[in-house]
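Lecture 7 notes: from sequence to structure.

We start with a single chain of 660 residues. Read the sequence below before looking at the structure.
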Amino acid sequence: MSEASSEDLVPPLEAEEAPDRDGEEAAKKKKKKKKSKGLANMFSVFTKGRKKKSQPSSAETEGDSEPQPRPGGRLPTVEELKADLEHGRLEAAGPLLALERELQAAVAAGGMSNEELLRRQSKVEALYVLLRDQVLGLLRRPLEAAPERLRQALAVLAEQEREDRAAAAAAAAAGPAPSALAATRPRRWLQLWRRGVAQAAEERLGQRPAAAAEGRTEAERAFLHMGRTMKEDLEAVVERLKPLFPAEFAVVAAYAQSYHEHFAAHLADLAQFELSERDTYVLLLWVQNLYPNDIINSPKLAGELQGVRLGSLLSPKQIRLLEATFLSNEVDSVKELMARALELESQRWSQDVAPQRLDGHCHSELAIDIIQIISQGQAKAESITLDLGTQIKHMLLVELAAFLKSYQRSFDEFLERCKQLRNYRANVIANINNCLSFRMFVDQKWQIPQDLPSHLLSPLNELKSHGVDTLLQNLFGVLKPLFKRFTQTRWAAPAQTLEEIISVVDERLPEFSELQDCFREELMEVVHLHLVKEYIIRLSKRRLVLNTAEKQQQLAGHIRANAELIQHFCTQNGSPATWLHRALPTLAEIIRLQDPSAIKIEVATYATWYPDFSKGHLSAILAVKGNLSSSEVRSIRSILDINTGAHEPSKSLFSLIKVG
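Now the structure, written as tokens:
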């Protein structure tokens, strides 16, 4: 149990003062005789009490001794019943009910003055006050009472309820009639018991929580205390009280409703104030998740509370307002945390802090930090309700897209301003590697519409592209004069020139080994594209004109051999650019062929693979074939006026090549 024991389930009920009693009847000395058969039958619904205790109390007495038999089977006097009740003998309930009925019979018979009737009624009612206090005194802490003693009290309460109903039915049948007696029924003891249960709930849930657990707010401690207390108390009611209480008392429902109402009232009051971000989240967590799932539908209570319509702890309007506040708070928090993470990462770049190495790759914690921030925001919302998790997902996607744009801008500034730093290239590689974590997070962790990832990840693609271009900038600068040799030597030794180019690239590839494998492949595709593009540029310079078929076939053979070397080297080093495989061999075939019609077919096919292959590019290649007439060149060029359609979504090749 929590701070207080579940033994305190019901608080003390204020005892009412009994009316003044006449002192006319002196206490009579009790004699021990056998009970009369009639009186024994009257007491048969009760269990006999225990032996007399020295100092009995209203809540704890077990019944001091058996009620004493009366001479001649007569009913006990008022004073005798008073003594019995003061000693906790609930068996006195039967004779008291008989006295009440005797009084009603006297009214019906007539012959007794109103003054005398009222005097007797006041004494009977005073006894009922004593009986009520005894019964409700036992029921206010039912777990402290012995089971048989509790059954006695419940039997008295049930009998009084039956009498209330009978009196109401008789009054309804007879209609209003003048009476010398004051109306005393319905006594509504069952309502008093339920009121006591409500007081118990208020006392139990209102107790001060245990010493503060570190890191928990005051509201959070209060929720935990109330939730734990309610669950444990209701489990005690189910296990220990339900078997003893009459079914019509609905003891589990009575306690559950009282605890629920107090819990709900406390939360409703709290919701009126401006809560901290933490308290807003915790309040929603209890209302929408912990209370309905961990308490109401807990294994021991779910079946018992299935028919008790407790409802929500807060109104739908209050919940909507709190959810809106939570979403706003959480999105703002996520935005702030991501901005702070990027700022710290940017400072490390500018301060030339070397990135970590993880499994042989340059590693940055930025992606992990951002993913954790986003995931925690998502998880918090889903811990309240799945619907709230769906709502925040779209909001977090917007914030992630904005962050990635900001990340790209910061990275571009770093690329531009920090080129002279020692760890410049390592930090570039680390940031390219970050793109993999972000890409996996979006593609695999979040099930989002397929058109969103491309839009969301476009800043990452730009970041990666700029980073790769930066890494290759120096290498491509070294290769430029080597490619110029093709035209400078009029393609006299193309094999040797290309081998030297390949050798330079091969020597520089270890510089990129700290990229993740997928990005090293993408970088290799960029290298592959660069080699093919630069080769075509040299072919398109119009400085080489071959007038014979033999020379054209010889050049075509060189181009095919060079194409095979480029393809083999790049593929061997991880380039996935199979789309480049036809680029050079087909140009070689166009140069080799002599029949204009055959050339047209080859050009038409080439244009389906490379839709950006224009008439200008074709003219530059055909310029190598000095034996073609102008009309033949125009005829071949015209084939590009026919839209044959591309075989697949194409990447840029010839659009990167400028021709005069």
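The radius of gyration is 47 Å. Keep this in mind for problem set 3.
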